[in-house]
Write a structure and sequence with these properties.
The model has no long low-confidence stretch (mean pLDDT 91). The chain has a domain at 7-18 and 30-44 and 57-107: 2-Layer Sandwich (Transcription Regulator spoIIAA). With 112 residues, the protein is α/β, with parallel strands linked by helices. The chain is globular, with a radius of gyration of 12 Å. The protein contains four helices and five strands, in the order ββαβαβαβα. Helix 1 (23-39) packs parallel to helix 2. The relative contact order is 0.20. It is 43% helix and 23% strand. Strand 4 (76-79), helix 3 (85-91) and strand 5 (99-101) form a beta-alpha-beta unit.
Length: 112
């Protein structure tokens, strides 16, 4: 992952991930989650339209982020999953726990 862009989108902070989420990237992403969780009263949407692969550290990062936002009664929504990501999420059973939306517009309406 080369870049993480954060911007306000409706009642949520939108994180756009540019590239894959691997070991080193997961720490940077968790820092963004923590910053939003502790300094904003926003829901979070993660746009994965440019992400084709997530390793186990990336999956753990998403699962932990979801857990922490849920504990604060906030939405944590993934959207625009590409290529093999739905299969990875299904094989690891993580899709049972994460909220996944087909599009950014759907995610924004859920976060409203």
């Amino acid at each position: 992952m080369k870049n993480i862009k954060v911007e306000k989108q409706g009642n949520a902070q939108l994180i756009t991930v540019d590239g894959d989420i691997e070991f080193d990237d997961a720490d940077n992403l968790e820092k963004k989650f923590d910053l939003i969780l502790n300094h904003e009263k926003s829901n979070i949407i993660i746009d994965l339209s440019s992400c084709k692969y997530i390793d186990s550290h990336g999956l753990a990062c998403l699962a932990n982020g979801h857990k922490h936002f849920k504990e604060k009664d906030r939405h944590f929504i993934l959207c625009n999953l590409q290529d093999g990501l739905p299969e990875i999420f299904s094989l690891t059973s993580i899709s049972k726990y994460l909220r996944i939306s087909g599009s950014l517009d759907q995610a924004i309406s859920i976060a409203a």
